[in-house]
Amino acid sequence: MAGEPHLEVEGLSKSFGALRVTDNISIAVPRGELHAVIGPNGAGKTTLIHQLSGQLKSDFGRIRLEGADITRLQMPERVRRGLARSFQITSILDGFSVLENVALAVQARSGSSFRFFARAASEAALNAEAMEALARVNLIDRAHRTAANLSHGEKRQLEIAIALATGAELLLLDEPLAGTSHEESAALVALMQELKASHTIILVEHDMEAVFALADRVSVLVYGRIIASGTPAEVRDDPAVRAAYLGEEEAA
Amino acid sequence: MTLAASDTKDDAAEPAIENRRGFGIVSREGAAVAATILFAALALLPLLASAIDDPFLIVTATRIMVFALAALALDLVLGFGAMVSFGHAAFLGIGAYSVAILSSHGVEDILVQTLVALGTASLFALITGAISLRTSGVYFIMITLAFGQMAYFFMISLSAYGGDDGMTLWNRSTVLGSDVLESDLVLFYVVLAALVLAFFALRAVVGSRFGRVLRGTRDNATRMRAIGFSPYSYQLTAYVMSGAIAALAGVFLANQTEFVSPAYMNWQRSGELIVMVVIGGMGTLVGPIAGAIALLLAEEWLANLWEHYKLVLGVLIVCLALFTRGGIAGAARRLFRGGRHGG
Amino acid sequence: MFNLFILQALNGIQFGILLFLVAAGLTLIFGIMDLINLAHGVLYMVGAYFVAMFTAMTGDFFLGLAIALPAALLFGILLEILIFRRLYERDHLDQVLATFGLILILNEGVKMIWGAAPMSVQIPAILSGSVPLIGFVQYPIFRIAIIVAGLATALGLYVLVNHTRTGMLLRAGATDGPMVSALGVDIKRLFMLVFGLGAMLAGFAGAMVAPILSVEPGMGDSILILTFVVIVIGGVGSVRGAFVAAILVGLVDTLGRTFGPILLRSAMDASAAGQAGRTLAPMLIYILMAVVLFLRPSGLFPARAAAV
Questions:
Q1: Is residue C7 part of a domain?
Q2: Where are the transmembrane segments (chain C) (predicted)?
């Protein structure tokens, strides 16, 4: 249906004990948008990503992907419907080769994995698609390395390659720039700029420079609530945001 | 840029099992070479036995190979699936009792007995696995242990089939009406063939699509879920396969000893199987075979030396747990690669 | 029939109380240290041997018990320092292996020191004999003493866990271990204390059954498995859960063995019922465990669920 948001969130909440970590969050993200979620530490950004990806069950609220209610679906089911995430703390298969890390994501959507004898590592079709994803993040020359031996920045690129290889059209990127050096960060920003053309992206990021360069729209999360949402310029000028967040950042 | 502790908690909640398993310890090719040498040596063993005129050597070797087969089966779940099953002796017992019970009713053909053993073990694994795999960590260990003991107590109280005293087989199983298995030498080669076949079949399985999902889940279950796999059904399938292969070992065990008792299903037996897999090097397939050989020979040797040999064995196992990494396979790898640690 | 029921129900409660004593320490060790300890059953055995030895030495059961309890505590602390301390940071497999090895050592060690033959302990004169309960039903005083002593211990534990500072730390530790160390508590000492306490409770259970069971190597193995069933049903880390589950398991097991065959007899002929009943009764508690797990994978009283 035309005009329907790619992802629509209504009244999403999650509590840990007495602590409301996300509180009545509503966002609509149209197809093709890069929507950034920013906020101070402990604002509930990663929890929100966990809820959207299905890693955490929500207490209240609805999540719709292309109009279909996915609130009750588990993470693997959401991935199969085209919603994939990356992790704030690098989560890759350290003992596997870079290529196999990505090929597994291809395998997940290419036919049954209840095949018991043919050697998976030699499946040309899986490897070819995995190589394409690696090409997009510029990791082709690392394909046969063991993932654990990559540099930190390369691991962050691999995270994104894996998410791409799932075939998802909507990516949840949880602080892709965390811990990266200046050059690594520049490469990743360029990569996300490219991905904007093909994917809808929800980006959680602390690096304000990157956020304001990339985002079409920005939502500001403070203590689990969205206090402002709009274009980067609107958000930048919002007095509540300045008070709660940007001011703190400048002062620091 | 600091990370909020509360935000990161969930990522840390499922730590990857310490990566000292899998082909990281020995290469795939290294494992195949080591296994081929081992199998060739075993195949030539009867020559040695006749040269030194010690027919008992073949009997001992058959027994060791039976346990090697069971340990190999356990490696699929323990080494490749990171499922610490403490109830695998139950499958061994199911296989052994399938032979004894069927044969007491006049069904002596090993093919029929094996089919029943595999079917029963698969069903038991499917039911207990389906419940156990809903949990993880210490729960999984305790529950598999408890289900193993359930099978043990079931056989103890089943007085119609010997109860606590066990059952003696009148004769070994027949193969299409022939009694060739009565020869220790034939049984030896049949068990060796099964071991070789199981090794290469499992080697294919762990390298297959299915095996890759299993290994990926072992290393990082959250990552696997995040690319669209639901690990449960893969783990359950591996658990059933493993149980069935362990039951096959049980079929041979009954034939080798010509006696079956609940003691085969005791939880200490399950513990010994884990020890075999770990001393050999888990997640290598060849390691558990080496581990079975090492543990059973050590037991035999120590038992001749000292009545309280289990004390020594216990000390060795504690030291193994506290101080070593990667077992025999890890040590071999370090020897060949020069000192680099397997972890 | 009703009398038999009362008798067996009391036996079930007495058995459940013993299971609770062993399970209480173990569930805290699982919950607080995330340590799987297979060797907890041998501590029960060691307690029984201690009381047998010290009773023989002093000629008095109560004096023997008074020495055996601190001895069990010290033994637990010694094991903690020698072995368990090195296992907290390890994965479960290492813990399984090390504690499995420890079982072999202690079972064999007991055999070396006291011999493989069972030892027996006399029921102290003051607790021997039976008392009439209802009508003709007589019940042994010693078993009543076990129930009373066990309930008193459970009450003591309840007070310790719910109304003391140590107890607060224990509860906090069972739900969120890192938080406790973040509070600046000496976590090492807390662990050692929990371990010693667990060893003493298990040893106490062993000491209490010494006069009514035979004291022999391996006697801890079967109770260990039942303890696991109790902990799984009750929920890891929950002392309250352990208590409820222990009584439940004790009752189901004891009553099932007696009344299973009787109930089946109404459905089939006597000999088949007897056979089926005897075979199925030992499986009842495992079926109970499976059902509980199916409905509530983290037990009846999950300690961790409250926090997350």
A1: no
A2: 12-31, 38-56, 62-84, 96-117, 137-161, 190-213, 225-255, 276-295
